[in-house]
TrEMBL record:
It comes from Amycolatopsis pigmentata. This is Nucleoside hydrolase. It comes from the Bacteria. The keyword Secreted does not apply. PANTHER family: INOSINE-URIDINE PREFERRING NUCLEOSIDE HYDROLASE (PTHR12304), URIDINE NUCLEOSIDASE (PTHR12304:SF4).
Length: 320
């Protein structure tokens, strides 16, 4: 078995694709799924995660519910205008009803127990707000050695989608994001909007996926409203699969090309709140003192073979 993986998620249409990708990839041992508030309420994100795992025949994967609000300030806005009132474009009935409830003890407890029990360091893929991961690192600093990488979908180098500066996952809990990205020393990969939008898939790609079998058909059935929203964003007939891009990197390290940069997160109350501040200037051009970002660094995903990535996603999501 390959990479040991835990997904922390707030499903979400693209989260559903990401969970299915991991659940159907032989290269990964999916140890668990934890849920967090985000696109919709915690109750809805948890139910959706259980539905997607049931669709994939993976009721063996433990699920635990985590934070239902940010660390400090209330979440400004959910993303039901993109993902629908239930998180799945109002079409959650396209997925099977789960025959189980989330496990007891909560997300941080499950994360800690899975990392402690693993025979080798674990990859965590947070594809929602980073609240659960910040809490894990705060409560269990002794477990950092058991984490190989944290592969995060979030942030934007050239701007955001929730505000002019901030991407939704980071904006939903900037204090948690700063704890994970800046204040800790666990290796992190940040997969930002700039790349995930370039990795968007065409409506024809989705239709072909829908014809491959029950899983592809169910995933395709979730997309009409999400696709309509992204036609306006992209300017063409397609949609972003943000979270699946990050999970692809978690499954297959190096499928995305990364570069290391200094990083900080804006936690102010001003218009830049939630922005990821990534200093991409050449080292010799970086100033010292005022205006300098924090000393932390992250590997930022900046490029990929777009056709190769889409083929990777299609291959795994279409497997019988």
């Amino acid at each position: 078995m390959g990479t040991k993986l835990i997904i922390d998620t707030d499903p979400g249409v693209d989260d559903a694709f990401a969970i299915a990708l991991a659940a159907r990839s032989d290269e990964v041992e999916l140890l668990g799924v934890t849920t967090v508030f985000g696109n919709v309420s915690l109750a809805a994100t948890t139910r959706n995660a259980l539905r997607v795992l049931a669709l994939c025949g993976r009721d063996d994967v433990p699920v635990a519910a985590g934070a239902d609000r940010p660390l400090v300030h209330p979440q400004p806005r959910r993303a039901s205008h993109i993902h629908g009132h239930d998180g799945l474009s109002g079409r959650s009935a396209a997925l099977p009803e789960p025959g189980r409830e989330p496990g007891p003890g909560g997300a941080v407890s499950l994360l800690a127990s899975l990392i402690s029990a693993a025979s080798e360091p674990v990859t965590i893929a947070p594809i929602g707000p980073l609240t659960n991961i910040a809490l894990l690192l705060a409560v269990h600093p002794e477990l950092k050695a058991g984490i190989d990488r944290i592969v995060i979908m979030g942030g934007g180098l050239g701007g955001g989608n929730s505000t002019a500066m901030a991407e939704f996952n980071i904006w939903s809990d900037p204090e948690a994001a700063r704890r994970v990205l800046v204040e800790e020393d666990v290796p992190t990969v940040l997969v930002p909007l700039d790349l995930t939008l370039r990795c968007a898939v065409e409506a024809g790609w989705l239709a072909k996926l829908g014809a491959t079998g029950p899983v592809g058909a169910a995933l395709h059935a979730l997309t009409p409203d999400y696709l309509e929203a992204y036609r306006k964003v992209l300017g063409w007939d397609g949609m972003a699969v943000h979270d699946a891009v990050a999970v692809a990197e978690a499954i297959s390290p190096g499928i995305l090309r990364t570069e290391s940069f200094p990083i900080d997160v804006d936690c102010s109350a001003g218009p830049g709140r939630g922005a990821t501040l990534v200093d991409r200037r050449p080292p010799g051009a970086r100033g010292v003192g005022e205006g300098e970002v924090a000393g932390a660094r992250a590997d930022i995903a900046v490029d990929t073979d777009l056709d190769g990535l889409r083929a990777f996603l299609f291959d795994r999501l279409s497997r019988p």
